[in-house]
């Protein structure tokens, strides 16, 4: 529904003034209906507040007179309020309809029935913990590489970048020089691992366990 043409600010201002006037009229009525009348100065102060609210309402109505003249209020004076009380109450209600409230409750109950079992969350947490523990997050090798047994040879025939480390023979591959791989150089730079220590192989466990039991 397009509400761009609805004078919300004007109507809200008038509603606020009417609400304040109703409040002070109710207070004045409560004082008058007491078994014993209050002191005259109390009644006078309450009556003065009512007059003040009336003046404020009159000023607000005059300020928004053009807007009110161009606005069609509902229900109109000819609306049969007594006969159509139920319809008027339905139109002015702020709560959802009873059937809509039932839909909301049914949806909440259905969602509770389809809740994921706790075993799934325990299993997921265990998988994540195992995967986290199998990695060395502060190095260039995984946890499997650091703990698995290896002689450092490339048995799959793959080539690896290497460098000649001067071991006292003057370089050029002469006696005393040590050939190291790029991985060993990186490990030495990042972790301080001796280049003579062989690079460990990667051993990956591909077995999958079922959900953990409580």
From TrEMBL:
- What do we know about how this protein assembles, alone or with others? Component of the Mediator complex.
Q: What Pfam families does UniProt report for this protein, alphabetically?
A: Med8
Q: Which UniProt keywords apply?
A: Activator, Nucleus, Transcription, Transcription regulation
Residue segments, region Disordered: 148-176
**Domain of life according to the entry:** Eukaryota
Which family does the similarity line name? Belongs to the Mediator complex subunit 8 family.
Task: Outline what the protein does.
Answer: Component of the Mediator complex, a coactivator involved in the regulated transcription of nearly all RNA polymerase II-dependent genes. Mediator functions as a bridge to convey information from gene-specific regulatory proteins to the basal RNA polymerase II transcription machinery. Mediator is recruited to promoters by direct interactions with regulatory proteins and serves as a scaffold for the assembly of a functional preinitiation complex with RNA polymerase II and the general transcription factors.
Q: Which residues form a coiled coil?
A: none
Name a single GO biological process: regulation of transcription by RNA polymerase II
Q: Does the keyword Cell inner membrane apply?
A: no
The protein's gene is named MED8
Q: Name one GO cellular component term.
A: core mediator complex
Q: Which InterPro entries match?
A: Mediatior_Med8_fun/met
Q: Does the keyword Nucleus apply?
A: yes
Q: GO molecular function terms here? A: RNA polymerase II cis-regulatory region sequence-specific DNA binding; transcription coregulator activity
Question: Where in or outside the cell?
Answer: Nucleus
Q: Report the protein name in the record.
A: Mediator of RNA polymerase II transcription subunit 8
